[in-house]
Protein backbone atom coordinates (compact mmCIF):
# COMPACT_ATOMS: atom_id res chain seq x y z
CA UNK A 1 0.00 0.00 0.00
CA UNK A 2 1.28 3.47 -0.84
CA UNK A 3 1.61 5.81 2.15
CA UNK A 4 0.10 9.25 1.74
CA UNK A 5 1.11 10.95 4.96
CA UNK A 6 1.43 14.67 4.52
CA UNK A 7 -0.07 14.59 1.03
CA UNK A 8 -2.55 17.31 0.29
CA UNK A 9 -4.98 17.72 -2.61
CA UNK A 10 -3.58 21.21 -3.14
CA UNK A 11 0.16 21.36 -2.74
CA UNK A 12 1.36 23.75 -0.06
CA UNK A 13 4.34 25.87 -1.10
CA UNK A 14 7.38 24.94 0.89
CA UNK A 15 10.20 27.01 2.28
CA UNK A 16 13.34 24.91 2.14
CA UNK A 17 16.71 25.27 3.76
CA UNK A 18 19.13 23.14 1.74
CA UNK A 19 22.42 22.62 3.57
CA UNK A 20 25.35 21.64 1.36
CA UNK A 21 23.41 22.86 -1.67
CA UNK A 22 26.59 23.82 -3.54
CA UNK A 23 27.96 20.27 -3.42
CA UNK A 24 27.37 17.43 -5.86
CA UNK A 25 24.01 16.00 -4.79
CA UNK A 26 22.81 19.16 -3.06
CA UNK A 27 23.21 21.28 -6.19
CA UNK A 28 21.52 18.68 -8.38
CA UNK A 29 18.69 18.66 -5.85
CA UNK A 30 18.40 22.47 -5.85
CA UNK A 31 18.30 22.62 -9.67
CA UNK A 32 15.75 19.81 -9.73
CA UNK A 33 13.60 21.41 -7.03
CA UNK A 34 13.63 24.92 -8.50
CA UNK A 35 12.57 23.52 -11.88
CA UNK A 36 9.90 21.22 -10.47
CA UNK A 37 8.45 23.57 -7.84
CA UNK A 38 9.28 27.10 -9.05
CA UNK A 39 6.99 28.71 -6.45
CA UNK A 40 8.82 27.19 -3.48
CA UNK A 41 11.40 29.24 -1.60
CA UNK A 42 14.87 27.63 -1.67
CA UNK A 43 17.61 28.89 0.65
CA UNK A 44 21.01 27.23 0.29
CA UNK A 45 23.43 27.26 3.21
CA UNK A 46 26.89 26.08 2.25
CA UNK A 47 30.34 26.62 3.74
CA UNK A 48 31.96 26.34 0.28
CA UNK A 49 34.63 23.87 1.34
CA UNK A 50 36.83 22.36 -1.39
CA UNK A 51 33.72 20.36 -2.45
CA UNK A 52 31.32 23.29 -2.63
CA UNK A 53 31.05 25.27 -5.85
CA UNK A 54 28.71 28.15 -6.37
CA UNK A 55 28.97 27.76 -10.11
CA UNK A 56 26.88 24.59 -9.77
CA UNK A 57 23.94 26.85 -8.96
CA UNK A 58 24.42 29.33 -11.82
CA UNK A 59 21.12 28.31 -13.42
CA UNK A 60 19.08 29.42 -10.40
CA UNK A 61 21.13 32.35 -9.07
CA UNK A 62 19.14 35.51 -9.57
CA UNK A 63 15.76 33.82 -9.27
CA UNK A 64 13.44 35.61 -6.89
CA UNK A 65 12.70 32.48 -4.89
CA UNK A 66 16.34 31.50 -4.47
CA UNK A 67 18.92 32.66 -1.96
CA UNK A 68 22.49 31.55 -1.35
CA UNK A 69 24.10 31.99 2.04
CA UNK A 70 27.74 31.15 2.65
CA UNK A 71 28.07 29.74 6.16
CA UNK A 72 28.72 26.77 8.40
CA UNK A 73 26.10 24.40 9.82
CA UNK A 74 28.06 24.54 13.09
CA UNK A 75 27.19 28.25 13.41
CA UNK A 76 24.12 28.20 15.65
CA UNK A 77 23.55 31.95 15.55
CA UNK A 78 23.43 31.93 11.77
CA UNK A 79 21.11 28.90 11.75
CA UNK A 80 18.66 30.52 14.17
CA UNK A 81 18.61 33.69 12.13
CA UNK A 82 18.05 31.91 8.81
CA UNK A 83 15.35 29.55 10.06
CA UNK A 84 13.45 32.42 11.55
CA UNK A 85 13.79 35.12 8.91
CA UNK A 86 13.04 32.68 6.09
CA UNK A 87 10.34 30.89 8.11
CA UNK A 88 11.74 27.54 7.00
CA UNK A 89 9.44 24.52 7.15
CA UNK A 90 11.60 21.96 5.35
CA UNK A 91 15.26 21.23 5.97
CA UNK A 92 17.04 19.10 3.36
CA UNK A 93 20.34 18.34 5.02
CA UNK A 94 23.12 17.40 2.59
CA UNK A 95 26.06 19.28 4.12
CA UNK A 96 28.81 16.87 5.04
CA UNK A 97 32.38 15.88 4.58
CA UNK A 98 31.71 13.09 2.15
CA UNK A 99 34.86 11.40 0.87
CA UNK A 100 36.10 8.21 2.56
CA UNK A 101 39.70 8.77 1.42
CA UNK A 102 39.75 12.24 3.00
CA UNK A 103 38.28 10.79 6.19
CA UNK A 104 41.23 8.42 6.40
CA UNK A 105 43.69 11.29 6.00
CA UNK A 106 41.90 13.60 8.46
CA UNK A 107 38.88 12.33 10.41
CA UNK A 108 38.51 15.44 12.60
CA UNK A 109 36.62 17.50 10.01
CA UNK A 110 34.18 14.61 9.56
CA UNK A 111 33.30 14.50 13.24
CA UNK A 112 32.98 18.28 13.30
CA UNK A 113 30.70 18.75 10.29
CA UNK A 114 28.85 15.45 10.17
CA UNK A 115 28.25 14.93 13.90
CA UNK A 116 28.58 18.36 15.56
CA UNK A 117 27.11 20.15 12.53
CA UNK A 118 24.09 17.85 12.32
CA UNK A 119 23.59 18.20 16.10
CA UNK A 120 23.70 22.00 15.81
CA UNK A 121 21.20 21.96 12.96
CA UNK A 122 18.86 19.66 14.89
CA UNK A 123 19.03 21.90 17.93
CA UNK A 124 18.30 24.99 15.85
CA UNK A 125 15.38 23.29 14.11
CA UNK A 126 14.02 22.03 17.44
CA UNK A 127 14.00 25.58 18.73
CA UNK A 128 12.46 26.94 15.52
CA UNK A 129 9.87 24.19 15.43
CA UNK A 130 8.19 25.67 18.47
CA UNK A 131 7.06 28.66 16.40
CA UNK A 132 3.45 28.11 15.30
CA UNK A 133 3.84 29.11 11.64
CA UNK A 134 6.17 26.28 10.79
CA UNK A 135 4.30 23.63 12.73
CA UNK A 136 2.05 22.45 9.93
CA UNK A 137 4.10 20.85 7.21
CA UNK A 138 7.63 20.57 8.41
CA UNK A 139 10.19 17.94 7.64
CA UNK A 140 13.83 17.57 8.60
CA UNK A 141 15.23 15.33 5.88
CA UNK A 142 18.63 13.90 6.72
CA UNK A 143 20.44 12.67 3.62
CA UNK A 144 22.66 9.75 4.55
CA UNK A 145 24.51 6.84 3.05
CA UNK A 146 24.32 3.06 2.76
CA UNK A 147 27.89 2.96 4.08
CA UNK A 148 26.57 3.12 7.67
CA UNK A 149 25.54 -0.54 7.30
CA UNK A 150 29.13 -1.71 6.76
CA UNK A 151 30.43 -4.23 4.25
CA UNK A 152 28.71 -7.28 2.72
CA UNK A 153 30.06 -10.67 1.74
CA UNK A 154 29.45 -11.85 -1.84
CA UNK A 155 26.27 -13.77 -1.01
CA UNK A 156 24.82 -11.60 1.76
CA UNK A 157 21.39 -10.10 1.17
CA UNK A 158 21.26 -6.37 0.42
CA UNK A 159 20.96 -3.83 3.25
CA UNK A 160 17.43 -3.15 4.46
CA UNK A 161 16.25 -0.40 6.80
CA UNK A 162 16.61 -2.83 9.72
CA UNK A 163 20.17 -3.96 8.98
CA UNK A 164 22.26 -3.17 12.08
CA UNK A 165 24.69 -0.29 11.70
CA UNK A 166 28.35 -1.35 11.35
CA UNK A 167 30.28 1.61 9.90
CA UNK A 168 33.91 0.93 9.02
CA UNK A 169 35.45 4.24 7.96
CA UNK A 170 35.65 7.55 9.82
CA UNK A 171 33.27 8.91 7.14
CA UNK A 172 30.63 6.23 7.63
CA UNK A 173 31.05 6.30 11.42
CA UNK A 174 30.44 10.04 11.48
CA UNK A 175 27.38 9.65 9.23
CA UNK A 176 26.12 6.84 11.48
CA UNK A 177 26.54 9.14 14.49
CA UNK A 178 24.51 11.84 12.75
CA UNK A 179 21.80 9.32 11.78
CA UNK A 180 21.48 8.26 15.42
CA UNK A 181 21.08 11.86 16.55
CA UNK A 182 18.39 12.47 13.93
CA UNK A 183 16.54 9.34 15.02
CA UNK A 184 16.78 10.35 18.68
CA UNK A 185 15.31 13.81 17.97
CA UNK A 186 12.23 12.17 16.51
CA UNK A 187 11.81 9.77 19.42
CA UNK A 188 12.64 12.22 22.18
CA UNK A 189 11.27 15.54 20.95
CA UNK A 190 8.83 14.48 18.23
CA UNK A 191 10.79 16.46 15.64
CA UNK A 192 9.48 15.37 12.20
CA UNK A 193 12.69 13.82 10.94
CA UNK A 194 13.23 11.36 8.09
CA UNK A 195 16.48 9.63 7.18
CA UNK A 196 17.40 8.37 3.73
CA UNK A 197 20.32 6.00 3.21
CA UNK A 198 21.43 6.01 -0.41
CA UNK A 199 23.96 4.09 -2.46
CA UNK A 200 26.76 5.62 -4.57
CA UNK A 201 25.56 8.50 -6.73
CA UNK A 202 27.01 9.62 -10.03
CA UNK A 203 26.22 12.36 -12.54
CA UNK A 204 26.99 16.02 -13.32
CA UNK A 205 28.81 18.29 -10.84
CA UNK A 206 30.53 15.51 -8.89
CA UNK A 207 33.87 16.71 -7.55
CA UNK A 208 36.84 15.34 -9.58
CA UNK A 209 38.30 13.15 -6.81
CA UNK A 210 35.39 10.65 -6.69
CA UNK A 211 35.69 7.46 -8.73
CA UNK A 212 33.65 8.24 -11.84
CA UNK A 213 34.72 11.86 -12.48
CA UNK A 214 38.30 10.95 -11.59
CA UNK A 215 38.38 8.24 -14.27
CA UNK A 216 36.77 10.50 -16.90
CA UNK A 217 39.07 13.43 -16.19
CA UNK A 218 42.25 11.36 -15.93
CA UNK A 219 41.43 9.71 -19.26
CA UNK A 220 40.97 13.15 -20.82
CA UNK A 221 44.32 14.40 -19.54
CA UNK A 222 46.17 11.13 -20.15
CA UNK A 223 46.82 10.26 -16.50
CA UNK A 224 46.74 6.79 -14.96
CA UNK A 225 43.35 5.38 -13.94
CA UNK A 226 44.08 4.18 -10.39
CA UNK A 227 42.03 1.16 -9.30
CA UNK A 228 42.36 0.27 -5.62
CA UNK A 229 43.42 -3.26 -4.65
CA UNK A 230 42.15 -5.99 -6.94
CA UNK A 231 39.28 -3.89 -8.34
CA UNK A 232 36.72 -6.48 -7.21
CA UNK A 233 34.95 -4.22 -4.68
CA UNK A 234 31.29 -3.83 -5.50
CA UNK A 235 29.19 -0.66 -5.32
CA UNK A 236 25.55 -0.02 -6.20
CA UNK A 237 25.26 3.02 -8.50
CA UNK A 238 22.36 5.44 -8.77
CA UNK A 239 22.06 8.37 -11.16
CA UNK A 240 21.88 11.53 -9.07
CA UNK A 241 18.57 12.77 -10.50
CA UNK A 242 16.91 9.53 -9.41
CA UNK A 243 18.19 10.22 -5.90
CA UNK A 244 16.65 13.73 -6.11
CA UNK A 245 13.35 12.21 -7.25
CA UNK A 246 13.47 9.85 -4.27
CA UNK A 247 14.05 12.77 -1.88
CA UNK A 248 11.12 14.58 -3.49
CA UNK A 249 8.68 11.74 -2.72
CA UNK A 250 10.13 11.36 0.77
CA UNK A 251 9.66 15.07 1.52
CA UNK A 252 6.11 15.03 0.21
CA UNK A 253 4.88 11.65 1.35
CA UNK A 254 7.46 10.16 3.70
CA UNK A 255 6.49 9.37 7.25
CA UNK A 256 8.28 11.18 10.07
CA UNK A 257 10.43 8.90 12.16
CA UNK A 258 11.04 6.54 9.24
CA UNK A 259 14.14 5.57 7.33
CA UNK A 260 14.10 4.87 3.59
CA UNK A 261 16.84 3.10 1.68
CA UNK A 262 17.54 4.39 -1.83
CA UNK A 263 19.47 2.45 -4.45
CA UNK A 264 19.80 1.78 -8.13
CA UNK A 265 19.86 -2.01 -8.03
CA UNK A 266 23.03 -1.76 -10.10
CA UNK A 267 25.77 -3.70 -8.39
CA UNK A 268 29.00 -3.32 -10.34
CA UNK A 269 32.60 -4.32 -9.61
CA UNK A 270 34.93 -1.32 -9.70
CA UNK A 271 37.10 -2.77 -12.45
CA UNK A 272 34.06 -3.47 -14.64
CA UNK A 273 32.81 0.06 -14.10
CA UNK A 274 36.20 1.50 -15.06
CA UNK A 275 36.30 -0.69 -18.18
CA UNK A 276 32.85 0.56 -19.18
CA UNK A 277 33.94 4.17 -18.64
CA UNK A 278 37.00 3.53 -20.82
CA UNK A 279 34.83 2.15 -23.62
CA UNK A 280 32.51 5.16 -23.41
CA UNK A 281 35.48 7.52 -23.47
CA UNK A 282 37.00 5.76 -26.49
CA UNK A 283 33.66 6.12 -28.27
CA UNK A 284 32.66 9.65 -27.28
CA UNK A 285 35.90 11.60 -26.88
CA UNK A 286 37.65 12.88 -29.96
CA UNK A 287 40.96 14.05 -28.50
CA UNK A 288 42.20 11.40 -26.09
CA UNK A 289 45.93 11.50 -25.28
CA UNK A 290 45.95 7.69 -24.87
CA UNK A 291 43.69 5.36 -26.78
CA UNK A 292 42.31 2.87 -25.87
CA UNK A 293 41.80 4.40 -22.44
CA UNK A 294 42.04 1.01 -20.77
CA UNK A 295 45.83 1.20 -21.35
CA UNK A 296 45.83 3.73 -18.52
CA UNK A 297 44.27 1.39 -15.94
CA UNK A 298 46.70 0.88 -13.07
CA UNK A 299 46.11 -1.20 -9.95
CA UNK A 300 47.30 0.76 -6.93
CA UNK A 301 47.64 0.21 -3.19
CA UNK A 302 44.27 -0.60 -1.62
CA UNK A 303 42.34 1.89 0.52
CA UNK A 304 42.76 1.17 4.27
CA UNK A 305 39.73 -0.73 5.62
CA UNK A 306 38.18 -0.76 2.11
CA UNK A 307 34.57 -2.05 2.30
CA UNK A 308 34.17 -4.96 -0.07
CA UNK A 309 30.57 -4.77 -1.15
CA UNK A 310 27.53 -2.52 -0.73
CA UNK A 311 24.06 -3.49 -1.96
CA UNK A 312 20.84 -1.82 -1.01
CA UNK A 313 17.27 -3.00 -0.92
CA UNK A 314 14.90 -0.12 -1.81
CA UNK A 315 11.67 -2.11 -1.65
CA UNK A 316 10.22 0.03 1.12
CA UNK A 317 10.60 3.20 -0.94
CA UNK A 318 9.21 1.43 -4.00
CA UNK A 319 6.16 -0.06 -2.34
CA UNK A 320 5.31 2.66 0.18
CA UNK A 321 6.10 5.76 -1.86
CA UNK A 322 5.93 4.44 -5.42
CA UNK A 323 9.47 5.44 -6.39
CA UNK A 324 11.73 3.63 -8.83
CA UNK A 325 14.86 4.70 -10.71
CA UNK A 326 14.18 6.15 -14.15
CA UNK A 327 17.69 6.11 -15.63
CA UNK A 328 19.45 2.85 -16.50
CA UNK A 329 23.11 2.58 -15.58
CA UNK A 330 24.08 2.44 -19.28
CA UNK A 331 22.19 5.66 -20.01
CA UNK A 332 23.36 7.36 -16.80
CA UNK A 333 27.02 6.59 -17.45
CA UNK A 334 26.77 7.84 -21.02
CA UNK A 335 25.12 11.07 -19.85
CA UNK A 336 27.79 11.51 -17.19
CA UNK A 337 30.73 10.89 -19.53
CA UNK A 338 29.21 13.34 -22.02
CA UNK A 339 28.80 15.92 -19.25
CA UNK A 340 32.48 15.73 -18.26
CA UNK A 341 33.47 15.89 -21.93
CA UNK A 342 31.35 18.98 -22.50
CA UNK A 343 32.16 20.80 -19.26
CA UNK A 344 35.91 21.05 -19.20
CA UNK A 345 35.61 24.65 -18.03
CA UNK A 346 33.80 23.36 -14.92
CA UNK A 347 36.35 20.78 -13.83
CA UNK A 348 39.67 22.21 -15.06
CA UNK A 349 39.81 24.97 -12.38
CA UNK A 350 39.09 22.35 -9.70
CA UNK A 351 42.39 20.55 -10.38
CA UNK A 352 43.99 23.14 -8.13
CA UNK A 353 47.13 23.06 -5.99
CA UNK A 354 45.02 21.79 -3.07
CA UNK A 355 43.69 19.00 -5.30
CA UNK A 356 47.21 18.06 -6.44
CA UNK A 357 48.37 17.91 -2.80
CA UNK A 358 45.42 15.67 -1.92
CA UNK A 359 46.13 13.52 -4.99
CA UNK A 360 49.78 13.01 -4.04
CA UNK A 361 48.80 12.05 -0.47
CA UNK A 362 46.37 9.37 -1.63
CA UNK A 363 48.06 7.99 -4.73
CA UNK A 364 51.78 8.61 -4.40
CA UNK A 365 52.69 8.06 -0.75
P1 LIG B 1 29.86 16.86 -1.49
O1 LIG B 1 31.12 16.65 -0.72
O2 LIG B 1 29.92 16.97 -2.97
O3 LIG B 1 29.14 18.20 -0.97
C1 LIG B 1 29.08 18.54 0.38
C2 LIG B 1 28.68 20.01 0.47
O4 LIG B 1 28.58 20.36 1.86
C3 LIG B 1 29.71 20.96 -0.15
O5 LIG B 1 29.07 21.93 -0.93
C4 LIG B 1 30.39 21.60 1.05
O6 LIG B 1 30.85 22.91 0.80
C5 LIG B 1 29.25 21.59 2.07
N1 LIG B 1 29.74 21.60 3.46
C6 LIG B 1 30.71 20.83 4.00
N2 LIG B 1 30.88 21.14 5.30
C7 LIG B 1 29.97 22.10 5.58
C8 LIG B 1 29.63 22.82 6.76
N3 LIG B 1 30.27 22.60 7.90
N4 LIG B 1 28.63 23.72 6.69
C9 LIG B 1 27.98 23.95 5.54
N5 LIG B 1 28.26 23.33 4.39
C10 LIG B 1 29.24 22.40 4.41
O7 LIG B 1 28.89 15.70 -1.03
P2 LIG B 1 27.75 14.94 -1.85
O8 LIG B 1 28.36 13.81 -2.57
O9 LIG B 1 26.95 15.92 -2.58
O10 LIG B 1 26.91 14.33 -0.64
C11 LIG B 1 25.85 15.07 -0.06
C12 LIG B 1 25.24 14.26 1.07
O11 LIG B 1 24.77 13.02 0.56
C13 LIG B 1 26.25 13.92 2.17
O12 LIG B 1 25.60 14.04 3.42
C14 LIG B 1 26.62 12.47 1.89
O13 LIG B 1 26.94 11.80 3.09
C15 LIG B 1 25.34 11.95 1.30
N6 LIG B 1 25.49 10.83 0.34
C16 LIG B 1 26.38 10.93 -0.70
C17 LIG B 1 26.47 9.88 -1.62
C18 LIG B 1 27.39 9.96 -2.81
O14 LIG B 1 27.52 8.97 -3.54
N7 LIG B 1 28.02 11.09 -3.09
C19 LIG B 1 25.69 8.74 -1.46
C20 LIG B 1 24.81 8.67 -0.38
C21 LIG B 1 24.71 9.73 0.51
P1 LIG C 1 34.20 6.52 -4.07
O1 LIG C 1 33.69 7.26 -5.26
O2 LIG C 1 35.26 7.16 -3.23
O3 LIG C 1 32.95 6.10 -3.18
P2 LIG C 1 32.87 5.16 -1.85
O4 LIG C 1 34.19 4.72 -1.41
O5 LIG C 1 32.24 6.09 -0.89
O6 LIG C 1 31.98 4.02 -2.25
O7 LIG C 1 34.78 5.14 -4.56
C1 LIG C 1 33.96 4.16 -5.17
C2 LIG C 1 34.75 2.88 -5.24
O8 LIG C 1 35.86 3.07 -6.12
C3 LIG C 1 35.35 2.43 -3.91
O9 LIG C 1 35.29 1.01 -3.85
C4 LIG C 1 36.78 2.89 -3.98
C5 LIG C 1 37.10 2.79 -5.47
N1 LIG C 1 38.09 3.76 -5.98
C6 LIG C 1 39.18 3.31 -6.73
O10 LIG C 1 39.35 2.11 -6.98
N2 LIG C 1 40.06 4.24 -7.20
C7 LIG C 1 39.91 5.56 -6.96
O11 LIG C 1 40.78 6.37 -7.39
C8 LIG C 1 38.79 6.01 -6.19
C9 LIG C 1 38.58 7.47 -5.90
C10 LIG C 1 37.90 5.06 -5.74
Q: What does this 3D model show about the protein?
A:
The protein has a domain at 15-206 and 239-266 and 308-328: 3-Layer(aba) Sandwich (Rossmann fold), CATH 3.40.50. The chain has helices at 24-36, 76-85, 100-105, 108-128, 170-189, 211-221, 240-253, 270-284, 315-321, 329-342, 344-347, 353-363, and strands spanning 15-19, 41-46, 66-70, 90-93, 139-145, 193-198, 200-202, 225-228, 234-239, 259-262, 267-269, 297-300. The strands form three sheets. It has a seven-stranded parallel beta sheet, with helices on both faces. The N and C termini lie far apart (53 Å). By secondary structure, the protein is an alpha/beta fold. It contains twelve helices and twelve strands. Strand 5, helix 5 and strand 6 (193-198) form a beta-alpha-beta unit. Helices cover 40% and strands 16% of the residues. Helix 1 crosses helix 7 (240-253), helix 2 runs parallel beside helix 4 (108-128) and helix 8 (270-284) crosses helix 10. The longest helix is centred in the N-terminal third of the chain and has 21 residues, at 108-128. The chain is globular and about 60 Å long. The structure holds nicotinamide-adenine-dinucleotide and thymidine-5'-diphosphate (TYD). Nicotinamide-adenine-dinucleotide binds next to helix 1, helix 4, strand 5 and strand 7.
Amino acid sequence: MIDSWNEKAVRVHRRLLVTGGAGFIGSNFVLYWCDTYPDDRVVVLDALTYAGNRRNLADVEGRENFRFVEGDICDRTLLDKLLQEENIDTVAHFAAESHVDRSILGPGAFVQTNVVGTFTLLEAFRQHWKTPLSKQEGIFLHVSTDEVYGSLGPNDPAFTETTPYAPNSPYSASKAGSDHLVRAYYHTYGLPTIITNCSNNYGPYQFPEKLIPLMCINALIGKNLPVYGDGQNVRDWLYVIDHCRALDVVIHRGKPGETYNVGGNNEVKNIDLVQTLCELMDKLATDLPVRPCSNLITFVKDRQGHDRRYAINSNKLKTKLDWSPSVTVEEGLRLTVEWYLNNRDWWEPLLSEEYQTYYRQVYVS
